[in-house]
Design goal:
Layout: H1 4-7, E1 13-18, E2 21-26, E3 41-47, E4 57-62, H2 85-90, E5 98-100
Antiparallel strand pairs: 1-2, 2-3, 3-4, 4-5
Organism: Daphoenositta chrysoptera
Domain Deubiquitinating enzyme MINDY-3/4 conserved: 2-103
Catalytic activity: Thiol-dependent hydrolysis of ester, thioester, amide, peptide and isopeptide bonds formed by the C-terminal Gly of ubiquitin (a 76-residue protein attached to proteins as an intracellular targeting signal)
């Protein structure tokens, strides 16, 4: 039998399979589970367990950013418009969100 805490987590946790690698994306704010207003600007942490990742990545997610104001000079499919797979995974939950890596090199 599964513990009630495992069925209803106290903190937001997502198990990810990005580019064939398993990882975890999690937050430390329990309000993300119950209060949609907390989804304006919030922090998530990403850990892949891979040897090349030496520390957990701290990400700031802004769901009300103006993504349409990005430079329109490049075609959407050009290399300059490519986004890390983790950002694209985050945008499956928060479409159009801006992801700040806070000094960490983005994972591709």
């Amino acid at each position: 039998q599964v513990s009630p805490a495992l069925r209803t987590p106290r903190l937001p946790v997502w198990l990810c399979s990005i580019s064939g690698r398993h990882s975890v994306l999690f937050g430390t704010d329990s309000r993300l589970l119950s209060d949609w207003r907390s989804e304006r600007i919030f922090h998530l942490y990403f850990y892949s367990g891979q040897q090349e990742q030496t520390q957990t990545a701290h990400l700031t997610i802004d769901t009300h950013s103006h993504h349409w104001e990005e430079a329109q000079r490049e075609e959407p499919c050009s290399p300059g418009k490519r986004r890390p797979a983790l950002e694209m995974a985050i945008r499956t939950r928060w479409a159009g969100a801006t992801v700040s890596w806070n000094g960490t090199d983005p994972f591709f």
